[in-house]
Design brief:
Number of strands: 12
Strand content: 25-35%
Radius of gyration: 27 Å
Number of domains: 2
Order of helices and strands: EEEEEEEEEEEE
Largest sheet: 6 strands, mixed
Bound molecules: calcium ion
CATH topology of the largest domain: Immunoglobulin-like
């Protein structure tokens, strides 16, 4: 007997734990349960298949060209920016990292990142921007889908957020702007023109 996943985002539960009444019997790789020979009139109610889904966390790092702290028309996504996912149980080593890429859902959009998170819990995101950029002001306006969420500039980090079972979180974004370069005054020449009164 072979079980087919209900959809591509589903994963097979581990098979064959000691309690056959409650376990999954479908192979994680093939979906097939071990063959059973039933005699006439015999009943076997222990052949089960378990599936689960993971959560997703994303999705953009963008350059705020019009300087309004929101992701909107005229802004562009930035590719190649390192994004790190940390569990609050270990804030020194990320559980996952990726470089931002073209959005596979819409390849014209850059700056996309997405983590598949199969363990529910508390997480935060760090965005390792180049030093030529500053982060924009976070949590501006009322629409979290277009605001920036890096609130701790020194640690390049978001607030802690909860990832629940099969959650699809698409509003954790980082806006950056070009740094205002410090200007050093090298020379100043002044001239006083006395005007005759
Ligand atoms: Ca079973
Ligand atoms: Ca903007
Ligand atoms: Ca926000
Ligand atoms: Ca946001």
């Amino acid at each position: 007997m072979t079980f087919v996943k209900p959809g591509s985002t589903y994963k097979a539960s581990p098979a064959n734990t000691p309690d056959d009444a409650k376990d999954s019997d479908a192979s994680v790789t093939t979906g097939a349960a071990a063959p059973e020979v039933l005699t006439s009139g015999e009943s076997n109610q222990t052949i089960d298949a378990g599936f689960y889904r993971c959560a997703y966390v994303g999705d953009y790092v963008w350059l705020d060209n019009n300087n309004n702290n929101l992701q909107d028309a005229g802004d562009v996504g930035l590719n190649g920016i390192l994004v790190e996912l940390y569990s609050t149980s270990n804030l020194t080593t990320p559980v996952q990292t990726m470089l931002t890429i073209n959005d596979p859902r819409d390849p014209s959009k850059k700056g996309y990142y997405n983590f598949e998170v199969c363990q529910v819990g508390d997480y935060l995101i760090k965005v390792k921007k180049p030093s030529t950029y500053d982060f924009v002001s976070p949590n501006q306006g009322t629409d979290d889908a277009i605001d920036s969420d890096i609130i701790d500039f020194a640690n390049e980090s978001t607030l802690i957020f909860k990832v629940s079972y099969a959650a699809e979180i698409n509003d954790i974004d980082a806006g950056v702007k070009s740094k205002v370069l410090p200007i050093t005054l090298k020379e100043f020449t002044g001239r006083w023109n006395q005007t005759e009164m």
